[in-house]
Structures are given as structure tokens and as C-alpha cells.
Specification:
Elements lengths: L2 H7 L1 H9 L1 H19 L4 E4 L10 E5 L2 E5 L6 H12 L8 E3 L3 H9 L3 E3 L1 H24 L4 H4 L2 H14 L1
Parallel strand pairs: 1-3, 4-5
Antiparallel strand pairs: 2-3
Helix pairs in contact: 1-2, 2-3, 3-6
Length: 166
Amino acid sequence: IDGYNIINAWPVLKAHAENSLEEARNHLIQMLVDYKTFTDQDIWIVFDAHMVRGVDNRRENISGLHIIFTKEKQTADSYIEMKVAELTRSRKNEVRVATSDWAEQQVVMGSGATRLSARELLIEVEDNEKRIIKKTETINSSKYFLSDRIDKKTAKKLDDWRKIRE
């Protein structure tokens, strides 16, 4: 995932970025942690640091997400292209690249990956959030209350006991 490309393409993240780029990055990371948890995909988010002097590659792992900050004079695109070439060497890997950069999409498709626009990724993330909410509601509405799991006779005894204590 081309991190800054996504931040600039998603309205909610773009609004965060106007206040703080770090806030926008953290928000994107949290959205993708939830997405990864539900989909169990390996996810790499790449942020450019090519304009920052003296910076070397920095890698972080946050809840299973691979977060990459490129080194000085290295773009996210060049890192993504290198990573795609590495991952597509094995035919077992299905590699998708999320970016709305048309030129980058063409390069990664030529390397054997598929492309996902920022808009398409947002739709997947939002659909995933809806499935998480639905699953959570289902779990919460399932027999998680004591009254849902005991017989009526026992429930009556407990209710009578509660009334005595009041």
C-alpha cells in the first residue's frame, strides 16, 4: 500500500493530514489493522521519506502490519516495485498493490501483481468494517446473558432472590 497516496485519496485521512500527517498515518494504520485482523492478509504500508535528509529505511510491525519508511532519496514507488519483484518470484504469492498512481499501477501489473485503486481499497475496508460490526452485533446478541442460558425455573428463583435483596 502506497501510504501517502492513500492518505491523499481518502477524504477522512486527507482531513486528518491537514492537521497532522502523523495523525493521518496512525488513522490509516488502525483502519488497516482492523482490515488485516479480519482478512488475515499480509499487508505492507510504505511511506516515502525520500525528501527527508539523513533518514535510513525504518521498519515497524504494528499488530502484524509491516510499516516501511523509505530511506532518503527512495520513493515509496521504488520500494514497492522492489518488493513486488521479490514477492512475485514465488507463484504462490498473490500480490496486490494499492495506489491510485496510474504509472505505478502499470509497473506493478507488468511485474505480475494486480492493482487496487485507493477507491477500491476504501470500499474493501468499509465493507470489512460493516462485516466486523455485523459479526460483533451477532456475538453480542447471542446467548451471552445469564438469563439466556439458564432454565426458567432457575431464572425465577434468581429474580425472587433479587427482589428480596432490594
